[in-house]
Design brief:
By secondary structure, the chain is an all-beta fold. It contains no helices and 21 strands.
């Protein structure tokens, strides 16, 4: 399938069985009525293809009910992404995006040990305090960590096989008279642990 699918606040959309999302744009919107945000469920054996998964506010995308791991194009927004026990591969389109919401285990079907894999040539920036526990793999493109609290990649290690792992840091004088942003990149392969959020964050080899 292609095109745009947008869920309204309080509603839900289920993609079942052998749905191939191809280049679809899926949007789980926030709620303006207090009924809770929209939820999009990828269950059965849904294929993410090059789809854009967007979730905003109390909106959420839930892949915990899929019977296999999922590859998709990109993730974006400030909502919630439930992984359950699945591995989500992101980067199968050319879009560089920022996700500032929360990526976590669990979801409607439960499960723990969800993991994230960055592939392709694009840049994915994670700026939320994520809690998924299955680890992170960088196999292509760039993964940038810009979280101010918690860990951008949860409590587990980050394995860099190819591509680039980086972080953004803000440097401010007490007078706030200037603002300068610096990218620090860790280009070499290895296993890293993102231990804390900036301004005193660190990425150190997991020895």
């Amino acid at each position: 399938m292609g095109g745009k699918v947008s869920g309204a606040g309080g509603g839900s959309i289920h993609f079942l069985a052998f749905t191939d999302l191809e280049s679809a744009e899926l949007i789980a919107n926030d709620s303006s009525s207090g009924a809770g945000g929209a939820r999009i469920f990828l269950v059965g054996k849904t294929h993410g293809g090059a789809a854009q998964l967007k979730m905003f506010g109390s909106g959420a995308v839930d892949i915990s009910g899929n019977i296999s791991d999922i590859a998709t194009g990109s993730i974006e927004g400030d909502g919630t992404l439930f992984l359950g026990q699945r591995l989500l591969s992101v980067g199968h389109n050319t879009l560089s995006t920022t996700f500032s919401g929360v990526i976590q285990d669990g979801g409607a079907s439960g499960g723990g040990g969800g993991a994230l894999r960055k592939v392709g040539t694009s840049t994915l920036t994670l700026s939320g305090a994520n809690t998924y526990t299955g680890g992170t793999i960088v196999e292509g493109g760039t993964l940038v960590l810009d979280n101010r609290t918690g860990s951008g990649t949860g409590p587990s290690v980050v394995q860099v096989n190819s591509g680039t792992l980086g972080r953004k840091r803000d440097h401010r004088r007490r007078s706030h008279s200037w603002h300068r942003e610096r990218d620090r990149r860790l280009p070499r392969p290895g296993t890293w642990r993102h231990q804390a959020a900036h301004p005193n964050d660190s990425e150190q080899p997991d020895l």
